[in-house]
UniProtKB/TrEMBL annotation:
Domain of life: Bacteria
Keywords, ordered alphabetically: Repeat, TPR repeat
Name under which the protein is recorded: Tetratricopeptide repeat protein
Coiled-coil spans in chain: none
A Pfam family that the UniProt record links to this protein: TPR_11
TPR repeat spans: 590-623, 657-690, 691-724, 759-792, 793-826
PROSITE patterns: TPR (PS50005), TPR_REGION (PS50293)
Length: 944
């Protein structure tokens, strides 16, 4: 006969609790009936809300229901309380508990781990460099007008993280288009740093990305198990951050469908928020718990073995019908029952009086002080004589255990604290100070393991937990003295996001309640209300900057953090106001200097940016993000040597892939392709799923004429992130260069579909249409590019070229003139304009012609990657003027000087074809040059 499997200790405890449970017969019967019903039945109650005042037994009933669900419905259950502060934490807690029951959410857990890693990277991304300013072939990158789809959805996701202000606070200072541009800017920054489109979506909208996977795996469990019941206790504290998510997974299909055999049980003090649940309240099974009737109270007292009528009357009188106190006062020993004669004493005193050991009595009182307990906190709270009694404490009726920690029932804890505060105000202060010092030491130990700036301690969850508990106890000990410091901490908490802000606000509320300090209580409730809004972090900061309690350094930091939000949103003028206010309050605040420098950089005010960044680095030389940002500023200024020095220094401090890639970009802009290739390869090896780094290496291969390698990398980048329009467009260029016209057209069209305002892709597709003789379609693309960005010089030049091919010479001249007006130093529109004038038989201005040739000659004489290009442009100018000896000399010099001449040869071939088309008189003399270039390409192509 097979041996029966043994019950777990937890199962035995639950069974004993069930067997000893008295009262709530109607509620127990109601849930039992739901266990009997088929989930598909109309009578099946799938969504319960248990509510009532503190102490009426909501959590106890929910635990009884959990036991009932396991025993009578063979259910898998989870039970979460106010330890969670957002939907992501709720899903994580549920996953951990399901795993303990053999139901592992493998894909969700893996995605959650990725989210934690990518979120850490995102935190750095928004404070460090912006996206790479990639130099596409043929001209400038198109403008970044926000797409309509981003105007609301993106901001909602960002606001949920506290990474970007939401609609609420921004409407006073910004129109929706500006907000959308900020959201797109964030997406671009994260795309540049994180690489994968999926990772960007995960960071920007974690609930939206994680919930479908969570629900899919919940569905898999529901198929294998008869019932799954999810309990959410203390919902009066978590409802503000869980309401919308729970509503969506239960009553909508936005994230997928909830299996029919999944039940939800909410337990909390108040009613559900009608503003969220609205028309669905009729689907909610409301269970209102009130105090025990006298009959129920007497039944519980009798079940505890108390028969003395006088004792029974005292228990009923002291408890007021609260099930928790009835149970506690009925659990005393027989000897203590005889002392229950004085109903004027508090229930707390009566409950503890039964404990004959004074050390344990004292330990029970002292352990009411911490917010929650583990053995380390217990030992810090009690005397040395009671240090080994933690197992005894955990067995007391009013403690509940969860995830290795335990906590007092809120009603009991509140009563005990009130008693001790009244009996000994000095003892109250000393005990809280003692615990604060303990948490301070543990915080210090955590700091010793964190090799980072002090501001970055806030990113470590263990450090934050110690800091929060330390602050709670110091507030309780000396609320008026410590409140300014803690409000300063809340500035940091808001900087971390709304979940951390919510924790600190709740802690402040708890400290105000426990110490009976109306000021703390008001602050906590105000900040909790702020944190519940879509743009909670920004709202909280706006409250804090006007708080008279906040000291100048913390006020400065609040302005700097608020400035960061505005900078990320693209509100540069507002950001500058915030950073400048921060600098007035605290001139040496590195965060303010760095933030203002980043803002100046984004505005193109590079000299101002350098001033602030130099100051910040001088104050904090190890700030690798500021050094890398200064390197980016130098790169944008064309000061490549300085940029290389900074990127190299930043890499020595923090060799992240994006910093290595930034140095690679600098090398590439200098024409030092082997070094660029080495850096991009190093960065890709460090982060193989970073699609932009892979694509950047692909573009480097393209510039070197290694078409096959370029194609492989760009295809790989697109596989990682199919929405990377830049990589798709670059692959289209490779197809153009290798004469795969249909594939090129397909890629350029796809890039435009991904981003309708992508000016470079529109110009590239127009060039393909030109080569295919489809001039009307080429014009349509160029009209769109110019409409998107009226200062897009390349688009005017290319449209003039199309008009030139079509014989619409006056329109061509007008477009070339506009291109020259936008950028007088660019030679191509000058060259093309001169050809149109020759076609029309007009005399070209001699001074103008000589100025263009002189400018190109001076550029050709300078060393660097642009010198061969200048020689190639001179070659074209001399071909158009039929000066063949000079043309031959310039072409040979261009090809000989270019270390990687294939791209130059290919582009020159295209230009010769255009010249042959518009100036038939020189066509015959151009043919030998074309043959020379084709021969070179044929010879080099196999190795490319």
């Amino acid at each position: 006969m097979a041996e029966q499997s043994r019950l777990s200790r937890q199962e035995i405890i639950r069974r004993r609790q069930r067997d000893g449970f008295v009262g709530r017969r109607r509620e127990m019967a109601r849930f039992m009936e739901s266990c009997r019903q088929a989930p598909e039945s109309d009578a099946f109650e799938f969504f319960f809300h248990v509510h009532g005042n503190a102490g009426v037994g909501k959590s106890t009933l929910a635990r009884q229901w959990e036991t009932m669900a396991r025993e009578h419905a063979a259910a898998v259950t989870t039970f979460v309380d106010d330890d969670i502060h957002d939907a992501v934490e709720a899903m994580e807690a549920i996953s951990i508990q399901l795993a303990r029951q053999g139901c592992v959410l493998k894909r969700f857990d893996k995605l959650l781990m990725t989210y934690r890693q990518r979120r850490h990277q995102a935190d750095a991304a928004l404070d460090d460099l912006g996206p790479e300013a990639e130099a596409d072939i043929g001209g400038a990158v198109g403008s970044q007008t926000a797409s309509v789809s981003s105007r609301v959805a993106t901001l909602i996701g960002l606001a949920g993280l506290g990474m970007l202000p939401g609609v609420g606070a921004l409407t006073a200072v910004i129109d929706p288009q500006q907000v959308a541009q900020g959201a797109d800017r964030v997406r671009a920054q994260l795309s540049a740093r994180l690489g994968s489109h999926a990772d960007v979506h995960l960071v920007m909208k974690p609930v939206e990305a994680l919930t479908p996977v969570f629900l899919e795996e919940i569905g898999d469990i529901a198929q294998r198990r008869p019932r799954l019941v999810l309990f959410f206790d203390v919902y009066e504290r978590t409802g503000a951050v869980l309401d919308s998510w729970l509503h969506d997974i239960v009553f909508s299909e936005d994230f997928g469908t909830l299996p029919v055999n999944v039940q939800i049980v909410l337990s909390g003090q108040g009613r559900l928020n009608a503003g969220v649940w609205g028309n669905w309240l009729g689907q909610v099974s409301e269970v209102l718990l009130e105090e025990f009737t006298e009959e129920e109270s007497r039944a519980l007292v009798a079940a505890k073995g108390i028969t003395d009528s006088q004792v029974v009357d005292v228990v009923l009188g002291l408890s007021g019908g609260l099930p928790l106190l009835v149970d506690m006062l009925s659990s005393i020993g027989p000897a203590a029952q005889k002392t229950l004669g004085d109903p004027s004493d508090t229930a707390v005193e009566r409950f503890l009086r039964w404990e004959s050991d004074p050390r344990r009595r004292e330990a029970a009182l002292r352990c009411a002080f911490p917010l929650q307990l583990n053995e380390d906190i217990y030992r810090a709270a009690v005397s040395e004589a009671s240090a080994d009694d933690y197992p005894w404490l955990r067995g007391l009726a009013f403690l509940s255990s969860h995830a290795g920690r335990c906590r007092y029932h809120r009603t009991v804890r509140s009563s005990m604290l009130r008693l001790q505060r009244g009996l000994s105000p000095i003892g109250w202060m000393e005990q809280h100070t003692r615990l604060a010092d303990s948490f301070g030491r543990w915080r210090g130990s955590a700091e010793s393991t964190l090799a980072c700036e002090s501001d970055l301690y806030w990113r470590d969850a263990v450090w934050r937990e110690h800091r929060l508990n330390e602050s709670y106890h110091r507030l309780c000990a000396m609320p008026r003295t410590v409140v300014a410091e803690v409000l300063g901490q809340i500035v940091h908490a808001a900087d971390q996001g709304v979940a951390t802000l919510h924790r600190w606000a709740q802690m402040l509320t708890q400290a105000g309640h426990d110490s009976e300090d109306d000021g703390l209580l008001a602050w906590g409730r105000r900040l909790e209300a702020a944190g519940a809004q879509s743009d909670g972090a920004l709202v909280a900061l706006s409250i804090l900057v006007s708080a008279p309690e906040l000291g100048a350094p913390s006020r400065a930091l609040a302005h700097a953090v608020r400035g960061r939000y505005y900078r990320v949103a693209g509100l540069y003028e507002q950001a500058l106001v915030e950073f400048e206010t921060a600098q007035v309050l605290a001139p040496s605040l590195v965060r303010g200097l760095y933030g203002r420098g980043r803002t100046y950089q984004s505005m193109g005010r590079y000299d101002d940016a350098l001033t602030d960044l130099n100051h910040a680095i001088g104050l904090s030389p190890g700030l690798s993000g500021a050094v890398a940002t200064r390197g980016e500023t130098y790169r944008r200024m064309g000061r490549f040597v300085d940029a290389l020095a900074d990127f190299t220094k930043a890499m020595d401090e923090d060799p992240q892939a994006w910093i290595v890639g930034s140095r690679g970009l600098t090398y590439r802009q200098m024409g030092r392709y082997p070094e660029a290739l080495a850096d991009f390869t190093r960065a890709v090896n460090a982060d193989p799923q970073h699609d932009r780094l892979v694509a950047s290496r692909g573009l480097t291969y393209l510039l070197m004429g290694r078409w096959n390698d370029a194609l492989n990398d760009l295809t790989r980048a697109i596989t990682i992130n199919p929405d990377n329009s830049w990589a798709v467009n670059c692959r289209g260029l490779v197809h153009q260069l290798t004469d795969r016209r249909d594939e090129a057209l397909t890629d350029h069209t796809r890039a435009i579909a991904l981003r309708s305002d992508y000016g470079t892709a529109l110009v590239c597709r127009s060039s393909m249409y030109q080569l295919m003789g489809r001039y009307d379609e080429a014009l349509a693309d160029l009209h769109q590019a110019i409409a998107t960005d009226p200062q897009y010089e390349t688009a005017f030049t290319e449209r003039g070229r199309v008009y030139q091919r079509m014989g619409r010479h006056e329109e061509a001249l007008a477009d070339f003139a506009q291109a020259i007006a936008i950028n007088p130093d660019e030679a191509t529109p000058h060259y093309l304009r001169s050809i149109v004038l020759r076609q029309l038989g007009r005399e070209e201005d001699g001074a103008h012609r000589h100025r263009v040739i002189r400018a190109l000659t001076e550029e050709a004489a300078r060393e660097g990657r642009d010198s061969p290009k200048a020689h190639a442009k001179l070659f074209l100018v001399f071909c158009a003027r039929a000066e063949w000896e000079s043309a031959t000399s310039q072409l040979n010099t261009a090809l000989n000087d270019a270390p990687y001449p294939l791209l130059l040869a290919k582009v020159t071939l295209v230009e010769l074809e255009h010249l042959q088309h518009v100036l038939p008189a020189v066509a015959e003399r151009i043919t030998p040059f074309q043959e020379q270039l084709r021969h070179m390409l044929t010879q080099r192509m196999p190795g490319s």
